[in-house]
Amino acid sequence: METKTNSFLRPTQYVEHEILTSILDGTYPPGAVLPNERILAVQIGVTRPTLRETLQRLSSEGWIKIRHGKQTVINDYWKNGGLRLLSTMAKYGEFLPDGLITHLLEVRCTLLPIIARLSVEKSPKAVFNFLALADDLDDKANIFATYDWKLQLLMARHSRNPIYTMILNDFTSVFEAMAFHYFSLQKARKTSGKYYIDLSDAIQQGGTGVEQIVRKTMEKSIEIWNEVKTIKKHETRRTKE
Predict the structure, then answer these.
(1) Which residues contact 184 (CB under 8 A, 6 or more apart)?
(2) Do residues 14 and 46 touch, judged by C-beta distance below 8 A?
(3) Among residues 180, 172, 8, which one has the least CA distance to residue 90?
(4) Is residue 31 within 8 Å of residue 76, measured between CB atoms?
(5) How far apart are the C-alpha atoms of 235 and 224, rounded to whole Å?
(6) Measured between alpha carbons, how far is 49 from 28 in angstroms, rounded to an integer?
(7) Which residues have C-beta within 8 Å of that of residue 43, sequence separation ≥ 6?
(8) What's the rounded Cα separation, in Å, for the pair 2 and 47?
(9) Mean pLDDT of the region 174-186
(10) CA separation for the pair 221, 105 (Å, rounded)
(11) How far is Cα 58 from Cα 88, in angstroms, rounded to an integer?
């Protein structure tokens, strides 16, 4: 009988939450071992079949290594994980390892300029029409966050390479976790507003410079995100004081 599960989560989701937050907050660092199934099931408050089902899935993603007859070991997930692990990790915003979002922004800085160029080469009108909507954006963090992500997904779809869309889909939860904080800075909204105009102008001129414009803006977004992190650290410090 399940005894401790959060009423808003299914039993397997609850087990995942308990184990992954313990991994991400350092309670169980890479190389550590989990208690045996009987003890761990009691600690979490679920049945052993429920626990076992979740452990098998976490093992397939690269979080843990199940050794028959021995205790389960926490993997070095940076080395053993893949996009499935990243997608799962993204659901735990407050526990994300330090620097993860910066790393993801660096990946975006590599991918999005290419995606944008392909989308403008193949569907310039679709991208241009969506950029026209930016003229009416309210100067609010949540509005910019939603619009910006939709733009990235639209460009990925119109690149006509479905793998790009699948990769960005895995970033959705991470983007939602950081976008509001990012766009809470007026500097970020102003930078993106100019970016939408520059991108639109480039499309009108036949797409010349699209890749360069996107790359320059993505590099700037990393600088701004690092400013956001600094501000958040100062706010946290003041709260504790």
Answers:
(1) 141, 228
(2) yes
(3) 172
(4) yes
(5) 17
(6) 22
(7) 35
(8) 6
(9) 84
(10) 8
(11) 9
| Model pLDDT for residues 187-210, shown as the tens digit of each residue | 999 999 999 999 999 999 888 899
pLDDT of residue 163: 93
Residue 133 φ then ψ, to 5°? -70, -20
Is the sign of the CA dihedral 196, 201, 204, 210 positive or negative? negative
pLDDT, tens digit, 9 for 90 and up, residues 13-63: 999 999 999 999 999 999 999 999 999 999 999 999 999 999 999 999 999
The answer for residues whose C-beta is within 8 angstroms of residue 144's C-beta and 6 or more apart is 137, 179, 183, 188, 189, 192
Hey, is 73 helix, strand or coil? Answer: strand
Q: How far apart are CA 36 and CA 80, in angstroms?
A: 22
> What is the pTM assigned to this prediction?
0.76
Which residues, other chains included, contact 29 with Cβ-Cβ below 8 Å and sequence gap of 6+? Answer: 23, 74
Pair of tokens at residue 85: 């692990």
Taking alpha carbons only, the member of 195, 177, 175, 172 closest to residue 232 is: 177
- Rounded to whole angstroms, the Cα distance separating 126 from 55 reads 44
Q: Which residue has the tokens 């979002």?
A: 101
